[in-house]
Amino acid sequence: MATPAPKSTPGDMSTFNILHGFTEALVRGMRSSFLTDADYHHLTQCETLDDVRLNLSETDYGNALADMNALIPTGLQKAAVEKLVTEFQYLRTQAIEPLSTFLDFITYEYMIENVMLLLKGTLSGRDINELIAQCHPLGMFKESTMRSIPTFESSPRGYQDLYQTVLVDTPVGPYFALFLQETAGRGEVSNVLEEVEIEIIKSSLIKFWIEDFSNFVNSLGGETATIMGDLLKVRADTNAINITLNSFGTPLNEPAMRASDRKRLYPAVGHLYPAGTSMLADVGDEDELGRVLELFPQYASIWNVHAAGGDGKSIDDAFYERDVQMLELAFEGQMHYGAFYAYVKLKEQEIRNLVWISECILQQQKEEINKFVPVFSFHAPWRAGSKRR
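and the corresponding structure tokens:
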């Protein structure tokens, strides 16, 4: 009887480079495309958007902006996103299983956002061409699928047909099925897509995506399960905190809905799960939320930023700083898939930085221009702190 080959994991040193070495080398090479501290310094000194374009022409964004007649923040964002999508799709074409499935999981988040954008636009009667133009390129379906979503009538039967004939065939269809099963199991009517607020539906779908993605990376094992698993736990916690914070002043914060509707939006993964999310379900105001988060050191400092409200920094800014630090560490790790996820998310942060800087220049708000989170910066708080020690 032949001895079976030993089972390897995506983080196995003996096979990772054989299977994924080329794809990893590509994403490592893309590290040089990030803007440097000097680039950010030059951009913040610009007086006009033409100056911004001139400075970006010397960076990796030069070709993406070459054909743009006049630079505007929305045009800059669109060009930068399209550049990211082109790079991501090239990585996807070079990947084999299970890395290819991992990269597909990254796109599911954008698919959910696109479907919800189209559904929300359908309810408000917006033009389909305008809605498709606003969809994220990483989450696009076939054009026929995109255009068919608004064609269904805004009625219970229409939304049932929408799911059964269109959404069920998309990669995110299973998440919609889980949502419909969950709401049906609670005795609600079948026309939930019409009656429940779009943002609540979106939060439910993102929850199912996070849980599914987490189960997948855990099944891979190795460094991928450790590093990527931690990134998804933090993402789940961030969602739970934001859902709770944003529910204040809405029907979701009513005592009867906290333990039912709001609690079911919390992902069943994360550092807060299950003890923390159970406590979050009983929170009724910001003071109570603060007392719960004080029990978790990794979130107490972030909440203190929100509670202090100084320096014009919001809780979202604190989350962004924490995310960038974790994503940089994940990107610089070896022999795991988290580097690909980190690359996409760090590029998204860089695009947010570019849009912020260009908006400040356009609106002549130069005193606010440095309120962004640079990527791979030598002046980052976590690096500056280590130098002082």
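(Above: one complete record from the training split.) The CA atoms of residues 169 and 389 lie 55 Å apart.
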